[in-house]
Amino acid sequence: MENSIDQKAKEALEKMFMDSFGSSDEDQELLITVRKIFAGEDDIEIPKEFLAEPAEGEEQGNLYSVINDMGIPQKIKLAMFGNKLARAILIRDTNRQVSMVVLQNPGVGEGEVLDFLRNPNLDDQIHRSIVRNGSWMKNYEMKVAVVSNPKIPIDIALKYVKYLNNKDLKNLSKSKNIPQVIATQCKKISQQRSDR
Q1: Is residue 166 part of a domain?
Q2: Eight-class DSSP state of 168
């Protein structure tokens, strides 16, 4: 297993962690541990079955309870290097540092990111981080997911309304599942396009 990531990812993680950690001794100790994890200099053990993607139909036991019993540093390492099943659990972790690291996992694919964007129960910082990634947001389905998720902050959703096609705009303008201001903007843009 490769325990290091490229320099750009390290810098992004460093900024994210510096922003999310406080100045308490406990936070500073965790930050030091996290830096060691990303430099590959830690001694934290992760069960091997959670690192590789399972074969088709292979059982992984009760992954949720195993992860639940882990400490924060172990969860962070698993978030960075774990398989899809581990990522699906850790993206919902109540500790923001753990859930944010999932997005830096080299195994995360666009399909997973799309699922994260569609999930209204995730921390809005996860959604904001995804939207900041220009390569993910080139995908049309990501834009639709941003606008149609009722928990995405309105300021972000409004930025993506103009990129939707008329069919999606019409459907969303009638939706009761999104904020009224988003539905109204969808209707307005759809009408403007039809009047041309």
Answers
A1: no
A2: H
Does the residue 52 lie in any domain?
yes
Q: Is residue 142 part of a domain?
A: no
Q: Identify which has the larger pLDDT, 27 or 35.
A: 35
How is residue 194 written in tokens? 């039809």
Q: Which amino acid is at 91?
A: I
User: What is the extent of the structural domain holding 64?
Assistant: 1-107
- Contact by Cβ (8 Å): 157, 144: no
User: Would residue 162 count as lying in a domain?
Assistant: no
Cα Rg of the chain, angstroms: 19
Helices (H) and strands (E) in the chain, counts: 12, 0
Q: Report the number of distinct structural domains present in the chain.
A: 1
Residue 82 CB neighbour total at 10 angstroms? 26
Q: How confident is the model at residue 134 (pLDDT cuts 50, 70, 90)?
A: confident
Centre a 10 Å sphere on the Cβ of residue 103 and count the other Cβ atoms it contains: 23
- The rounded distance, in Å, linking the Cα atoms of 127 and 116 is 8
Contact 149, 117 (CB under 8 A): yes
Contact 190, 173 (CB under 8 A): yes
